[in-house]
Amino acid sequence: MRGKLMFLTGLAAGFVLGSRAGREKYEEIRANAQKIWENPTVQEAAGVAQAQANKLYSEGKDKLQSSKLGEKLNTGTTSSSTSTTDELLAPSDSLAGSKGTSTSTGTTY
């Protein structure tokens, strides 16, 4: 009971302090975050991180498929379910915050 009371007290304090800061402060924080994200150095670092993630994903996928577990998982599955799984598990093409990505099926998320 004490934990719930402390949580509700913290929630109420956060609400009051947040509402005092208001929309203007929120917009200022959001604008600063957007400036940082659009910084070329940050974008370059995000690109490097994305490339490394794609490489690690591909290496891990290849290792899994060549392992005994991967062979067991692939027995009894069809190629259509494998391609669907690959689409669902594949990392996104960009961290730049694109509004939507499309898959080979034409579906936009």
Question: What's the SSE blueprint?
Answer:
Layout: H1 2-38, H2 40-66, H3 68-74, H4 79-89
Structure explained in plain terms:
The two termini are 42 Å apart. The protein has helices at 2-38, 40-66, 68-74, 79-89. The protein has 109 residues and is mostly helical. α2 packs across α3. Helices cover 75% and strands 0% of the residues. Mean pLDDT is 74; it is low at 93-105.
Shape: flat
* C-alpha end-to-end distance: 42 Å
Largest sheet: none
Helix/strand class: mainly alpha
How many E strands?
0
The whole-number mean of residue pLDDT values reads 74
Helical fraction equals over 70%
Nearest-angstrom radius of gyration? Answer: 22 Å
**Spans with pLDDT under 50 lasting ≥5 residues?**
93-105
- State the helix count: 4
Beta content: under 5%
Helix/strand order, N-terminal first: HHHH
Which key phrases capture this entry?
about 110 residues; 4 helices; mainly alpha; single chain
Give a brief rundown of this model.
The chain has 109 residues and is mainly alpha-helical. Helix 2 (40-66) packs across helix 3 (68-74).
